[in-house]
Design brief:
The chain is an alpha+beta fold. The chain has two domains: 131 residues, 2-Layer Sandwich (60s Ribosomal Protein L30, Chain: A); 71 residues, ACT domain (Alpha-Beta Plaits, 2-Layer Sandwich), CATH 3.30.70.260. The protein has seven helices and ten strands. The strands form two sheets. It has a six-stranded mixed beta sheet with strand order 2-1-3-4-5-6. The chain has a four-stranded antiparallel beta sheet with strand order 8-9-7-10, with helices on both faces. The longest helix has 18 residues. The N terminus is likely disordered.
Amino acid sequence: MKQYSSFDILGPIMIGPSSSHTAGAARIGNIARKIYGGKITSVRFYLHGSFAETYRGHGTDRALLAGILCMDPSDDRLRDSLNIAKEMGIDFEFIPTVIKDAHPNTVMVEMDGENGRISVTGSSIGGGSIVITRIDDFNLEFTGDYPTLITSHVDRPGVIAKVTEIIKGCDINIAFMKVFRHQKGKEAAMIIEMDYTLPDKAIDEIKKIKEISSVMMIEPV
């Protein structure tokens, strides 16, 4: 039997009107911003399904942009995020589209700035909960509910063991772990959701692993 938290029963603390269209959207934007890392100069939101149909009336546009501005779903400034982004010189656009086989509340966030172009796709699945399903061309899956380590690496034996040994050395428990790859022996990704955030020293150790090409630590939103 599923154990329900007060979050499941009462819903998220948020600026309304809809947990799926505002709280979830703000969380997707916030995680996309964290994945990008650097300064963003422009962002395009490709909206699918009910996001595309009702994004103005339900405030999905303001919520997504608020997330890009590092606001959480309960931030009073969310209502004015469009004006705040303009004042900060961030160009933005909302584009209704169709994303094949996607959840009805799905958006692809395409960001440009000092780190080049990065896209993040996520879905708002109800009650403020989300799932991130794609970063650039890589299909993956994580919720943003836990401190999450994301690595890109060469798909070779022993790489996963090296990373998990470093995590073990920090006495941090792994809650969920998934590994994705395009092709055997080629590029792969690890998604490791943990009880606590890895210290910087441990992240630096992971970066030194020969097969690892990139590492990011995403804090929960």
